[in-house]
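Researcher: Quick test of sequence recovery. Tokens follow.
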């Protein structure tokens, strides 16, 4: 039998194990925020992987953003070295999940199996991907006990909230240094026949307009911060949005609509704070002296962050020039550089060849509209040979009745095992 058939058979033989493992992982309600059951899921994985000969490190991101005694940010790093020297292939999955939300017809933590699918919050994003990489590694090791190099599997915290208590913390401590790890695969749900090379950049900022409070019956004695903000938003509508729509990227971002820079107004608030629910009276008449928006600007490789910020500043300055008394502040909240792994990078070529061998078609190369933990591996770890590749269907992430297809998982596990064979299995 050829390598591909040997590995496919080894993975078919583990189908029930794969289903059970995925269901067990879904059973941990690792909701973030606030970050629940992180220790429990890491301990479960530690038991599983140590019984398969992996060395285990449990790493709490002490002092990281959101880490506390009530909600400790636990991570697991498992490593299995082969008997010969060689490269290290690292599979990184986040173990946290976003909120459950409404509209479910299934129990989000039961891992219900129906018609070849496993349902649950995190089934596709990304406990199914984590389980797939574990089964792929175990099957590969059983078929190739004398493999070269090492395999690492990590389950990390807080991807859903920026990854500071997870991959960023590990990257700062050398876990993704290129002399330790040479290839990284992140089994995020990007579909089993697609390779995700990277993501667009992000800039979040708060823009605040200032006015002067006065009685609402005599607004001419005050200065309305909400009207100033209205002028800023109008300038965005008339000037900025058309400019952004006219800019395109050569990055293969999916969906197509994201092949332009984008700007979302995430939130707006001006004037009196919302009253407590048990307050039954009327609001007071005041001219608002503060109005604040949060913007979410996604930028492309062809733009740079300095220009992105300067463009917003120039727009607001143009408004200021027309409005006497107008003042404002811009506060940076969060920024991520765009990243895109080269199509000729070893991990890209190897996974691409494996997709061709297993699925009989060329992979699609895509870029994600939003970011994921590759940003930390790229910027802090300085490791460029990194992709996202996993079996889930991207559109189902964070939706009610999220599911993952069992055949998609076994196909993808075969791709991953064949990738390991190619990178670590050669004589
Ligand atoms: Zn995810």
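Model:
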């Amino acid at each position: 039998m050829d390598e591909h058939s040997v590995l496919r058979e080894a993975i078919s033989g583990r189908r029930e194990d794969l289903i059970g493992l995925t269901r067990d992982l879904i059973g941990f309600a690792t909701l973030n925020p606030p970050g629940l059951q992180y220790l429990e899921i890491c301990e479960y994985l530690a038991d599983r992987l140590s019984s398969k000969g992996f060395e285990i490190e449990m790493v709490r991101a002490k002092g990281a953003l959101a880490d506390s005694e009530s909600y400790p940010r636990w991570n697991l790093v498992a490593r299995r070295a082969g008997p010969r020297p060689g490269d290290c292939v690292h599979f990184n999955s986040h173990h946290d999940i976003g909120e459950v939300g409404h509209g479910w017809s299934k129990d989000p933590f039961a891992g219900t199996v129906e018609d070849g699918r496993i349902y649950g919050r995190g089934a596709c994003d990304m406990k199914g991907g984590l389980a797939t990489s574990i089964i792929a590694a175990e099957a590969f090791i059983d078929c190739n006990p004398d493999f070269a190099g090492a395999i690492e599997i990590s389950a990390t915290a807080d991807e859903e909230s920026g990854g500071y208590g997870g991959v960023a913390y590990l990257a700062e401590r050398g876990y993704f240094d290129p002399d330790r790890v040479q290839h990284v695969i992140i089994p995020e749900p990007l579909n089993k026949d697609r390779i995700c090379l990277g993501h667009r950049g992000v800039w979040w900022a708060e823009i605040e307009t200032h006015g002067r409070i006065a009685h609402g019956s005599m607004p001419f004695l005050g200065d309305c911060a909400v009207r100033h903000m209205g002028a800023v938003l109008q300038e965005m509508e008339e000037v900025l949005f058309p400019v952004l729509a006219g800019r395109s990227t050569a990055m293969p971002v999916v969906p197509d609509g994201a092949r332009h820079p984008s700007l979302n107004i995430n939130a707006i608030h001006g004037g009196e704070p919302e009253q407590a629910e048990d307050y039954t009276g009327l609001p007071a008449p005041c001219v608002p002296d503060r109005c604040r928006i949060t913007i979410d600007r996604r930028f492309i490789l062809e733009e740079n962050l300095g220009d992105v910020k300067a463009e917003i500043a120039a727009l607001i300055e143009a408004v200021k020039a027309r409005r006497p008394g107008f003042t404002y502040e811009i506060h940076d909240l969060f920024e991520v550089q765009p990243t895109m792994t080269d199509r000729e990078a070893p991990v890209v070529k190897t996974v691409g060849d494996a997709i061709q061998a297993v699925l009989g078609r060329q992979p699609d190369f895509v870029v994600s509209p939003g970011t994921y933990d590759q940003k930390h591996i790229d910027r802090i770890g300085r490791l460029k040979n990194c992709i996202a590749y996993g079996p889930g269907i991207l559109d189902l992430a964070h939706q009610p009745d999220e599911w993952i297809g069992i055949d998609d998982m076994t196909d993808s596990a075969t791709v991953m095992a064949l990738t390991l064979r190619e990178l670590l299995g050669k004589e």
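Residues 123-143 form the longest helix (21 residues).
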